[in-house]
Fold this protein.
Amino acid sequence: MNPLLQTRRHFFKASSLSLAASYLHGATRHHEAKIDHVIYLFQAGGPSQLELFDYKPALTKYDAQPAPAELLKGKRFAFMDTFSKEPPKMLGTRRQFKQSGNAGMYFSELVPNIAAVADQLTMFHGVSTENFNHGPAKLFMNTGSFRAGRPSIGSWVTYGLGSESKDLPGFVVLQSGPRGPRSGAQLWSSGFLPTSFQGVPFRSTGDPILNLSTPRNVTADQQRQTIEALRDLNVLEKSHTGDTEIDTRIAQYEMAFRMQTSGPELIDFAQETPATMEMYGAKPGAPEHAFANNCLLARRLVERGVRFVQLYHTDWDHHDDLTKPLDQVAREVDQASAALIIDLKQRGLLDRTLVIWGGEFGRTPMGEVREKGKIGRNHHIDAYSIFMAGGGLKPGTIIGGTDELGFSPTGGPLHVHDIQATLLHLLGIDHKKLTYRYQGRDFRLTDVAGEVVHRALA
C-alpha cells in the first residue's frame, strides 16, 4: 500500500512500533507483579540521614572530638585529602528524635509528617553506593552506572512493561527546588534504548509541556490534518531510510496531539477538594509549593495509567550549614511526601504503587567547617538511608542498620543495585533478564551485580 494513501487505522495496524506496542502494554514480566506503578521522590544533593532517620546518640558523646582512628582506617571518604594531617571531628546531631510506629522507627523533628506514616514505610539503613561526587552518584542511582549514556530506571521499566495510558507518556519527570540547580536530562535519558522510552519533563502549571496548546486560529480539524500529513511524510521517509527512530517521532506527534486534551485536564487542580489541597500543602503557581504540587500531580498521573513518575527536588547539599537551610528543604518535602502516601492508600492505589524516597548518598558522622561559625557534613557513600512504601513490601519494617556512630553498615549489605533489583522485582521483572544488546554486549540496569532484598518483601 502506498504510505501516502494509508488510512490512520491501517497505518497503526501495520506499524512495527505502534502506540499499542510502545506505550500501552509490555510483555516482559517474569513473575507475578506486586505493583504496576512507581513514584520516585528523588532528593538531590544527599540528605543527611543523621539529621532525619538514623538516630545515633553515641555521636553526642564524641561531639567535637577527633574521629577515632579505628573509624577512619581503610574507609572511603569524599574528602580524604582535606584532613590527611588532622582527623576530622565528630558531629552529634542538634535535632530531637522520637520513635514512631510499631517498629519504633526513629524520625527527627524535621519530618513529623513522614513519622506519622511510619507504619506504612519500609526503612532501609546502611545503603551503599559507588561514587563520592554528586553528578556520577546521581547517575549511578538513576541509571545503574556513573557513566553518562545508560538508560534510566524509568526507561528500563517502560521498555519492559510499556504504559497503561494511551493519552500520556509512560515515564514522566517533575522538578522542584527553588534554590538549587535543576537535575540534568541524562538522569531520565533512554540512553541506548529507543528514544520512545525516555522521560518526558512536565510542568505543574500552565501547559504540562511548552508549546503544547494548539496555535491561535487553528481549528481541531486543521490540527488533526496537520498531524496526519506529518505522519504520512514520516512513513514515506521510513520506507526509504528504514530508520526505526522515525516510529518514535510518529508516536510523539500522536501523543502530543492527544495531550492537547488530556494535558490541561491533568493539571486542573480545581478538580481536587480543598481538603486534599490542604493535606498536600499544594498551591498552583507558587514556587515554594512546587514539590507539593508535583506530589499531587504524581498521584494524578498514576491514576491515569502512567507507569513511572520521577520527582527531582534539589537543595539537600548541606556542607556548611545544618540549620536554616536544612529546616527549609525539610519543610518543603515533609508534608507532601506523607500526604502522597496517605492519599494513595485512601484511594486504593498504594497496593499497586511503589513510592521511593531518597538521594544519591548520605552524610558523614564527622562535621565539616567551610565557613567560620557554621558546620555541616560531607558526602558519605557507605551507609545512608532511604525509605519505600507500597505494594509487595513489609510495611512498618526496618531493613539493615548502621554502627553506633552511623558510619558503617550492619545487618547485611544493601547496595544501590540491590534497591534497583528490588524495584524491578516488585514490577514482575527479573533484573537479570531485562537486557538490551548494544555494541555486542547485553546490558541491564544492575550491570553485573544486584540482589533482590527478599527480607523487605511481604
User: Anything to note?
Assistant: The longest strand covers residues 37-43. The chain has a mean pLDDT of 86. The chain has 13 helices and 16 strands. The CA atoms of residues 107 and 115 lie 6 Å apart.
